[in-house]
Amino acid sequence: MVDIHIDGSSSVPPFEQLRTQLAKQITERTLTVGTRLPTVRKLAEELGLAANTVARAYRELEEAELIETRGRNGSFVSAVGGHSQAAIQRAAQDYAAKVRAFGIDPEEAVRVVRAALRQ
Q1: CB-based contacts of 33: which residues, under 8 Å, 6+ apart?
Q2: pLDDT tens, 62-73?
Q3: CB under 8 Å, gap of 24 or more: what pairs does 57-61 form?
Q4: Which pLDDT score, from 0 to 100, does residue 61 have?
Q5: How far is residue 75's CA from residue 61's CA, in Å, rounded to a whole number?
Q6: If you write DSSP's letter for every residue of 56-76 in order, what string do you get?
Q7: What residue ranges do the domains of the chain occupy?
Q8: CB 109: neighbour CB atoms within 10 A?
Q9: What is the pLDDT of residues 103-119, one digit of tens each?
């Protein structure tokens, strides 16, 4: 099912660790389209987290269209989420074209992306 490990000593907040791991499993198709995720309460209990922490991760995954919540039926891996990798690839290609057009050094362009990802 869902294989998640939360590092309590990490400087990365638990909701972000959860969100990142679930997003990776979805984009790598370890969690396939239609897979039902554990309820917020159940996953919080399993991981020793507050329910609000899991709810925040689920909410952000839903905003990214990686999962969808179907009311009382639960949360599921979204079919749209399978397209996110292609969308990211297109955005990266667009960015690379702009970097070349502006004559920006590729290393500087990568630094800009890293800084944006940290925000």
Answers
A1: 77, 78, 79, 81, 82
A2: 998 899 999 889
A3: 57/15, 57/16, 57/18, 57/19, 57/22, 60/15, 60/19, 61/19, 61/22, 61/23, 61/26
A4: 95
A5: 10
A6: HHHHHHHHTTSEEE-GGG-EE
A7: 14-78, 84-118
A8: 16
A9: 999 999 999 999 998 88
**Rg of the chain (C-alpha set):** 17
Q: Which CATH number fits domain 14-78: 1.10.1040.10, 3.40.50.1100, 1.10.10.10, 1.10.540.10?
A: 1.10.10.10
Instruction: Report d(CA 96, CA 88) in Å as an integer.
Output: 12
Do 35 and 41 contact (CB within 8 A), yes or no? no
Contacts of residues 58-65 at CB distance under 8 Å and 24 or more positions apart, as own/partner, are 60/15, 60/19, 61/19, 61/22, 61/23, 61/26, 64/23
Residue type, 91: A
- Torsion region of 29: left, alpha or beta (phi above 0 gives left; psi -120 to 50 gives alpha): left
How far apart CA 31 and CA 29 sit, in angstroms, is: 5
